[in-house]
Amino acid sequence: MNEQNTTNVDIPLVQWFPGHMTKARRLIEENLKLVDIVVELLDSRIPLSSSNPIITSLVGNKPHIIVLNKADLSDPVITHEWLEFYKRMGKTAIAIDSVKGKNLKELTQAIGQLTQKQTGKFAAHGAKPRNARAMIVGIPNVGKSSLINRLSNTIAAKTENRPGVTRAKQWIRISKNIDLLDMPGLLWPKFDDPTVGLRLAFSGAINDDIFDKEQVARLLLAYLQEHYPSALLNRFKLEELPEDTNELFELIGKKRGCLVKGGHIDEEKVVTIIFTDFRSGKLGRISLEAPSA
Predict the structure, then answer these.
(1) Annotated binding residue 121
(2) What pLDDT shows up at residue 174?
(3) 257 annotated to bind ligand
(4) Which residues pair with 172 in a beta bridge?
(5) Is 69 annotated as a binding residue?
(6) Could you tell me the keywords of this UniProt record (predicted)?
(7) Is 164 labeled as ligand-binding?
(8) Model pTM score
(9) How does DSSP classify residue 131?
(10) What is the pLDDT of residue 90?
Protein backbone atom coordinates (compact mmCIF):
# COMPACT_ATOMS: atom_id res chain seq x y z
CA MET A 1 0.00 0.00 0.00
CA ASN A 2 1.09 3.58 -0.55
CA GLU A 3 2.45 4.96 2.70
CA GLN A 4 2.71 8.73 2.96
CA ASN A 5 4.40 10.65 5.73
CA THR A 6 1.71 12.50 7.61
CA THR A 7 4.22 14.94 9.01
CA ASN A 8 7.76 14.93 10.26
CA VAL A 9 6.83 14.52 13.93
CA ASP A 10 6.41 11.22 15.74
CA ILE A 11 3.08 9.48 15.24
CA PRO A 12 1.30 8.99 18.58
CA LEU A 13 0.31 5.51 19.67
CA VAL A 14 -3.50 5.34 19.52
CA GLN A 15 -5.13 2.19 20.93
CA TRP A 16 -8.76 1.58 21.94
CA PHE A 17 -10.30 -1.78 22.86
CA PRO A 18 -13.13 -1.36 25.40
CA GLY A 19 -14.43 -4.40 27.22
CA HIS A 20 -17.53 -4.93 25.11
CA MET A 21 -15.32 -5.59 22.05
CA THR A 22 -14.53 -9.05 23.43
CA LYS A 23 -18.26 -9.77 23.60
CA ALA A 24 -18.67 -8.46 20.04
CA ARG A 25 -16.05 -10.88 18.75
CA ARG A 26 -17.73 -13.76 20.55
CA LEU A 27 -21.11 -12.83 19.05
CA ILE A 28 -19.65 -12.84 15.53
CA GLU A 29 -17.96 -16.20 16.07
CA GLU A 30 -21.12 -17.78 17.50
CA ASN A 31 -23.43 -16.53 14.74
CA LEU A 32 -21.33 -17.00 11.60
CA LYS A 33 -22.76 -20.49 11.14
CA LEU A 34 -26.27 -19.00 10.91
CA VAL A 35 -25.55 -16.83 7.86
CA ASP A 36 -24.86 -17.39 4.17
CA ILE A 37 -22.75 -14.30 3.54
CA VAL A 38 -20.79 -11.62 5.38
CA VAL A 39 -21.13 -7.96 4.43
CA GLU A 40 -18.06 -6.10 5.70
CA LEU A 41 -18.51 -2.35 5.91
CA LEU A 42 -15.33 -0.28 5.51
CA ASP A 43 -14.75 3.47 5.57
CA SER A 44 -14.06 4.42 1.93
CA ARG A 45 -11.56 7.06 3.10
CA ILE A 46 -9.48 4.39 4.87
CA PRO A 47 -10.34 0.92 3.48
CA LEU A 48 -7.08 -0.62 4.66
CA SER A 49 -7.09 0.89 8.14
CA SER A 50 -10.79 0.14 8.70
CA SER A 51 -10.45 -3.52 7.67
CA ASN A 52 -10.37 -5.57 10.85
CA PRO A 53 -7.93 -8.52 10.57
CA ILE A 54 -10.01 -10.42 13.14
CA ILE A 55 -13.05 -10.26 10.86
CA THR A 56 -10.97 -11.40 7.89
CA SER A 57 -9.77 -14.45 9.80
CA LEU A 58 -13.25 -15.30 11.12
CA VAL A 59 -14.94 -15.06 7.71
CA GLY A 60 -12.63 -17.63 6.13
CA ASN A 61 -14.12 -19.06 2.92
CA LYS A 62 -17.68 -17.83 3.53
CA PRO A 63 -19.04 -15.56 0.75
CA HIS A 64 -17.94 -12.03 1.53
CA ILE A 65 -18.88 -8.59 0.16
CA ILE A 66 -16.72 -5.55 0.83
CA VAL A 67 -18.74 -2.35 1.09
CA LEU A 68 -16.93 1.00 0.95
CA ASN A 69 -19.28 3.24 2.89
CA LYS A 70 -19.16 7.05 3.10
CA ALA A 71 -18.20 7.19 -0.57
CA ASP A 72 -19.63 10.70 -0.63
CA LEU A 73 -16.77 11.74 1.68
CA SER A 74 -13.86 10.04 -0.08
CA ASP A 75 -11.83 11.11 -3.09
CA PRO A 76 -13.75 9.56 -6.02
CA VAL A 77 -10.59 8.83 -8.02
CA ILE A 78 -9.01 6.92 -5.14
CA THR A 79 -12.27 5.12 -4.32
CA HIS A 80 -12.35 3.86 -7.91
CA GLU A 81 -8.77 2.66 -7.47
CA TRP A 82 -9.85 0.69 -4.40
CA LEU A 83 -12.74 -0.93 -6.28
CA GLU A 84 -10.34 -1.99 -9.03
CA PHE A 85 -7.89 -3.25 -6.40
CA TYR A 86 -10.52 -5.55 -4.85
CA LYS A 87 -11.67 -6.67 -8.29
CA ARG A 88 -8.12 -7.79 -9.11
CA MET A 89 -8.15 -9.76 -5.85
CA GLY A 90 -11.32 -11.55 -6.95
CA LYS A 91 -13.48 -9.87 -4.30
CA THR A 92 -16.92 -8.32 -4.69
CA ALA A 93 -16.68 -4.65 -3.66
CA ILE A 94 -19.27 -1.87 -3.84
CA ALA A 95 -18.98 1.81 -2.94
CA ILE A 96 -22.07 3.25 -1.25
CA ASP A 97 -23.44 6.25 0.57
CA SER A 98 -25.63 4.78 3.29
CA VAL A 99 -27.01 8.19 4.31
CA LYS A 100 -28.35 9.10 0.85
CA GLY A 101 -28.93 5.50 -0.21
CA LYS A 102 -26.59 5.48 -3.20
CA ASN A 103 -25.86 2.02 -4.71
CA LEU A 104 -27.91 0.11 -2.13
CA LYS A 105 -29.83 -1.72 -4.86
CA GLU A 106 -26.49 -2.92 -6.23
CA LEU A 107 -25.63 -4.22 -2.76
CA THR A 108 -28.87 -6.21 -2.30
CA GLN A 109 -28.52 -7.65 -5.80
CA ALA A 110 -24.98 -8.80 -5.00
CA ILE A 111 -26.17 -10.44 -1.77
CA GLY A 112 -28.86 -12.30 -3.71
CA GLN A 113 -26.46 -13.45 -6.41
CA LEU A 114 -23.78 -14.66 -4.03
CA THR A 115 -26.24 -16.61 -1.86
CA GLN A 116 -28.22 -18.34 -4.62
CA LYS A 117 -26.44 -21.63 -4.02
CA GLN A 118 -27.31 -21.72 -0.32
CA THR A 119 -30.91 -20.47 -0.60
CA GLY A 120 -31.62 -22.66 -3.63
CA LYS A 121 -30.89 -25.89 -1.78
CA PHE A 122 -34.39 -25.90 -0.30
CA ALA A 123 -36.04 -25.43 -3.71
CA ALA A 124 -34.05 -28.38 -5.05
CA HIS A 125 -35.90 -30.57 -2.53
CA GLY A 126 -39.30 -29.19 -3.38
CA ALA A 127 -39.49 -26.63 -0.58
CA LYS A 128 -39.81 -22.87 -0.85
CA PRO A 129 -36.41 -21.11 -1.11
CA ARG A 130 -35.64 -19.47 2.22
CA ASN A 131 -34.42 -15.92 2.64
CA ALA A 132 -30.73 -15.19 2.26
CA ARG A 133 -29.11 -14.57 5.63
CA ALA A 134 -26.41 -11.92 5.72
CA MET A 135 -24.26 -10.73 8.60
CA ILE A 136 -23.11 -7.11 8.60
CA VAL A 137 -19.82 -6.40 10.35
CA GLY A 138 -17.37 -3.54 10.65
CA ILE A 139 -15.49 -1.28 13.00
CA PRO A 140 -17.33 1.26 15.19
CA ASN A 141 -18.82 4.36 13.58
CA VAL A 142 -18.45 3.06 10.03
CA GLY A 143 -22.17 3.54 9.30
CA LYS A 144 -23.69 0.09 9.86
CA SER A 145 -26.81 1.39 11.57
CA SER A 146 -27.40 4.05 8.93
CA LEU A 147 -27.08 1.41 6.22
CA ILE A 148 -29.52 -0.97 7.92
CA ASN A 149 -32.05 1.81 8.49
CA ARG A 150 -31.86 2.73 4.82
CA LEU A 151 -32.21 -0.84 3.65
CA SER A 152 -35.12 -1.64 5.95
CA ASN A 153 -36.80 1.80 5.70
CA THR A 154 -37.21 1.80 9.47
CA ILE A 155 -35.28 2.93 12.49
CA ALA A 156 -34.31 -0.68 13.06
CA ALA A 157 -30.87 -0.03 14.47
CA LYS A 158 -29.97 2.74 16.86
CA THR A 159 -27.91 5.33 15.01
CA GLU A 160 -25.55 7.62 16.86
CA ASN A 161 -22.36 9.37 15.80
CA ARG A 162 -20.43 7.78 18.63
CA PRO A 163 -18.25 4.64 18.43
CA GLY A 164 -19.56 1.51 20.10
CA VAL A 165 -23.31 2.16 20.29
CA THR A 166 -24.68 -1.11 18.80
CA ARG A 167 -23.72 -3.79 21.31
CA ALA A 168 -26.17 -6.65 20.74
CA LYS A 169 -27.14 -8.69 17.71
CA GLN A 170 -30.29 -7.82 15.74
CA TRP A 171 -32.06 -9.59 12.85
CA ILE A 172 -33.58 -7.13 10.37
CA ARG A 173 -35.52 -7.92 7.17
CA ILE A 174 -34.08 -5.62 4.49
CA SER A 175 -36.02 -7.01 1.53
CA LYS A 176 -38.61 -9.71 0.82
CA ASN A 177 -35.84 -12.30 0.47
CA ILE A 178 -32.92 -11.03 2.59
CA ASP A 179 -32.57 -11.06 6.38
CA LEU A 180 -29.66 -9.15 7.87
CA LEU A 181 -27.97 -9.91 11.17
CA ASP A 182 -26.41 -6.79 12.63
CA MET A 183 -23.33 -7.17 14.81
CA PRO A 184 -21.73 -4.66 17.19
CA GLY A 185 -18.75 -2.69 15.92
CA LEU A 186 -15.48 -4.54 16.46
CA LEU A 187 -11.93 -3.25 16.70
CA TRP A 188 -8.87 -5.38 17.32
CA PRO A 189 -6.73 -5.26 20.49
CA LYS A 190 -3.55 -3.76 19.04
CA PHE A 191 -2.73 -1.69 15.97
CA ASP A 192 0.71 -2.91 14.94
CA ASP A 193 1.11 0.04 12.56
CA PRO A 194 0.64 3.33 14.45
CA THR A 195 -0.57 4.97 11.23
CA VAL A 196 -3.65 2.71 11.34
CA GLY A 197 -4.63 3.96 14.78
CA LEU A 198 -4.00 7.52 13.68
CA ARG A 199 -6.26 7.22 10.61
CA LEU A 200 -8.97 5.59 12.69
CA ALA A 201 -8.72 8.55 15.06
CA PHE A 202 -8.96 10.97 12.12
CA SER A 203 -12.15 9.29 10.90
CA GLY A 204 -13.91 9.14 14.28
CA ALA A 205 -13.80 5.35 14.64
CA ILE A 206 -11.96 5.72 17.95
CA ASN A 207 -13.34 7.57 20.94
CA ASP A 208 -11.86 11.09 20.91
CA ASP A 209 -11.43 11.02 24.67
CA ILE A 210 -8.66 8.41 24.61
CA PHE A 211 -6.03 10.33 22.61
CA ASP A 212 -4.43 13.77 22.50
CA LYS A 213 -6.98 15.51 20.28
CA GLU A 214 -4.84 18.55 19.58
CA GLN A 215 -1.82 16.50 18.51
CA VAL A 216 -3.95 14.30 16.26
CA ALA A 217 -5.78 17.30 14.77
CA ARG A 218 -2.45 18.93 13.90
CA LEU A 219 -1.33 15.69 12.21
CA LEU A 220 -4.54 15.61 10.18
CA LEU A 221 -3.97 19.23 9.22
CA ALA A 222 -0.43 18.39 8.10
CA TYR A 223 -1.75 15.59 5.88
CA LEU A 224 -4.29 17.91 4.31
CA GLN A 225 -1.61 20.55 3.73
CA GLU A 226 0.44 18.06 1.76
CA HIS A 227 -2.28 16.19 -0.15
CA TYR A 228 -5.35 18.43 -0.31
CA PRO A 229 -4.13 22.04 -0.06
CA SER A 230 -6.97 23.41 -2.20
CA ALA A 231 -9.50 21.97 0.26
CA LEU A 232 -7.99 24.06 3.04
CA LEU A 233 -7.73 27.17 0.87
CA ASN A 234 -11.38 26.92 -0.16
CA ARG A 235 -12.85 25.98 3.20
CA PHE A 236 -11.04 28.61 5.25
CA LYS A 237 -10.95 31.27 2.52
CA LEU A 238 -7.17 31.56 2.52
CA GLU A 239 -5.11 33.17 -0.23
CA GLU A 240 -2.15 30.88 0.44
CA LEU A 241 -1.13 28.15 2.84
CA PRO A 242 1.70 28.67 5.28
CA GLU A 243 4.27 25.89 5.11
CA ASP A 244 4.30 25.45 8.87
CA THR A 245 1.38 23.41 10.23
CA ASN A 246 1.39 25.23 13.56
CA GLU A 247 1.14 28.55 11.76
CA LEU A 248 -1.79 27.20 9.73
CA PHE A 249 -3.47 25.99 12.93
CA GLU A 250 -3.21 29.52 14.36
CA LEU A 251 -4.46 31.06 11.12
CA ILE A 252 -7.57 28.86 11.08
CA GLY A 253 -8.27 29.89 14.66
CA LYS A 254 -8.08 33.58 13.74
CA LYS A 255 -10.18 33.12 10.60
CA ARG A 256 -12.91 31.39 12.61
CA GLY A 257 -12.74 33.81 15.55
CA CYS A 258 -11.51 31.19 18.01
CA LEU A 259 -9.91 33.74 20.31
CA VAL A 260 -9.68 34.03 24.06
CA LYS A 261 -8.61 36.85 26.34
CA GLY A 262 -5.34 38.40 25.22
CA GLY A 263 -5.89 37.52 21.57
CA HIS A 264 -4.68 33.94 21.98
CA ILE A 265 -6.11 31.01 20.05
CA ASP A 266 -8.64 28.71 21.70
CA GLU A 267 -6.90 25.48 20.67
CA GLU A 268 -9.83 23.29 21.69
CA LYS A 269 -12.22 25.12 19.37
CA VAL A 270 -9.78 24.90 16.46
CA VAL A 271 -9.39 21.16 17.04
CA THR A 272 -13.18 20.75 16.96
CA ILE A 273 -13.38 22.69 13.69
CA ILE A 274 -10.70 20.57 12.01
CA PHE A 275 -12.27 17.26 13.05
CA THR A 276 -15.84 18.35 12.31
CA ASP A 277 -15.05 19.81 8.90
CA PHE A 278 -13.11 16.71 7.84
CA ARG A 279 -15.51 14.09 9.20
CA SER A 280 -18.62 15.82 7.84
CA GLY A 281 -17.17 16.34 4.37
CA LYS A 282 -17.18 20.14 4.58
CA LEU A 283 -13.53 20.12 3.51
CA GLY A 284 -14.48 18.17 0.39
CA ARG A 285 -13.99 14.58 -0.69
CA ILE A 286 -10.77 13.33 0.88
CA SER A 287 -9.07 9.92 1.10
CA LEU A 288 -6.32 9.12 3.59
CA GLU A 289 -4.87 6.04 1.89
CA ALA A 290 -4.70 4.55 -1.59
CA PRO A 291 -4.00 1.04 -2.89
CA SER A 292 -0.67 0.20 -4.44
CA ALA A 293 -0.45 0.24 -8.23
Answers:
(1) no
(2) 87
(3) no
(4) 180
(5) yes
(6) Cytoplasm, GTP-binding, Hydrolase, Nucleotide-binding, RNA-binding
(7) no
(8) 0.85
(9) P
(10) 94
* Residues 210-235: b if buried by 16+ CB within 10 A, e if exposed: ebebebbbbbbbbbbbeebeebbeeb
Intervals of CATH 3.40.50.300 along the chain:
20-182
Report, in angstroms and rounded to the nearest whole number, the Rg of the chain calculated over CA atoms.
Answer: 21
Residue 83 CA to residue 68 CA, distance in Å, equals 9
Averaged over successive runs of 10 residues, the pLDDT of the chain (293 residues) comes to: 44 59 81 93 96 87 95 97 96 95 94 87 73 90 89 59 50 88 80 88 90 95 97 96 96 94 92 97 97 74
143 is in an annotated binding site: yes
The CATH number of 194-280 is 1.10.1580.10
Q: Is 145 annotated as a binding residue?
A: yes
Residue 190 annotated as binding site: no
Quote the pLDDT of residue 163: 45
What pLDDT does residue 159 have?
A: 39
Counting every residue written for the chain, the total comes to 293
Domain with CATH 1.10.1580.10 in the chain: 194-280
The CATH fold of domain 20-182: Rossmann fold (3.40.50)
The partner residues of 181 in beta bridges, in order of sequence, read 135, 171
C-alpha to C-alpha distance for 76 and 219, rounded to whole angstroms: 23
CB hemisphere CA count around 190 (13 angstroms): 1
Q: Is 153 annotated in some ligand binding site?
A: no
